[in-house]
């Protein structure tokens, strides 16, 4: 598998910027790592554990700290699980699932299952919205409500097939 990074030095630099961004947010957090069939997924967990769970999915070429920066007040009423999407420049695996099927949805459902999350509010923007779409199509059982903000990729392909998937699956 070809790396996302030109060199180990580039990867190290990206991860240093990642940590700087997370530290700038000035929030209490912990890292959780979940092993999936697609590789290790890193999650930044913040907020009160007694609050309802919210899974936050960042956009393309992003990371969990960027998602937390865009939505800074979510942790006031939720325990936020900001997921580092795999195959993006962050702390998760570089494994790239297929975009032609629901692999990203399978991956996200596996992450939520391994974190024992149910009754989840899930929020995603851009590419994160597409991942949520694929997650809902794959299995919506763990999700209470979903917010897709400017979701990327929904208009690609056959719109009739997409509507069929929403209505009949």
Task: Walk me through the structure.
- With 169 residues, the chain is α/β, with parallel strands linked by helices.
- Helix content is 34%, strand content 22%.
- It has one domain (8-168): 3-Layer(aba) Sandwich (Rossmann fold), CATH 3.40.50.
- It has 5 helices and 6 strands, in the order H-E-E-E-H-E-H-E-H-E-H.
- The termini are far apart.
Rg:
16 Å
Uncertain spans: none
Shape label: globular
CATH fold description = Rossmann fold
Output mean pLDDT. 91
Structural class: alpha/beta
Main CATH class:
Alpha Beta
Number of beta strands: 6
* SSE order, one letter for each helix or strand: HEEEHEHEHEH
Provide the helix percentage: 25-40%
What share of residues are in beta strands?
A: 15-25%
Q: How would you name the CATH homologous superfamily?
A: Alpha/Beta hydrolase fold, catalytic domain
End-to-end separation in angstroms reads 33 Å
Number of domains: 1
Largest sheet features: 6 strands, mixed
Topology:
Layout lengths: L7 H17 L5 E7 L2 E8 L6 E5 L6 H7 L8 E5 L19 H12 L5 E6 L1 H12 L4 E7 L9 H10 L1
Parallel strand pairs: 3-4, 3-5, 5-6
Antiparallel strand pairs: 1-2, 2-4
Descriptive key words:
169 residues; alpha/beta; Rossmann fold; six-stranded mixed β-sheet; 5 helices
Summarize the structure.
The protein has 169 residues and is of the alpha/beta class. It is built from five helices and six strands, in the order αβββαβαβαβα. A six-stranded mixed β-sheet has the order 1-2-4-3-5-6, sandwiched between helices.
């Amino acid at each position: 598998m070809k790396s996302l990074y030109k060199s180990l030095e580039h990867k190290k630099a990206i991860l240093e910027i990642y940590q700087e961004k997370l530290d700038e947010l000035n929030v209490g957090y912990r890292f959780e790592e979940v092993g999936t069939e697609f590789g290790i997924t890193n999650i930044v967990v913040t907020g009160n554990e007694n609050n309802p769970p919210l899974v936050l999915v960042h956009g393309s070429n992003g990371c969990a700290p960027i998602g937390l920066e865009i939505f800074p007040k979510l942790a006031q009423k939720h325990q936020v699980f900001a997921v580092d999407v795999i195959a993006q420049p962050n702390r998760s695996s570089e494994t790239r699932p297929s975009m032609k099927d629901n692999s990203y949805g399978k991956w996200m459902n596996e992450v939520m299952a391994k974190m024992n999350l149910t009754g989840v509010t899930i929020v995603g923007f851009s590419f994160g919205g597409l991942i949520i779409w694929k997650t809902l199509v794959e299995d919506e059982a763990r999700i209470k409500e979903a917010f897709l903000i400017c979701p990327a990729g929904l208009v690609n392909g056959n719109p009739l097939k997409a509507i069929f998937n929403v209505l009949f699956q």
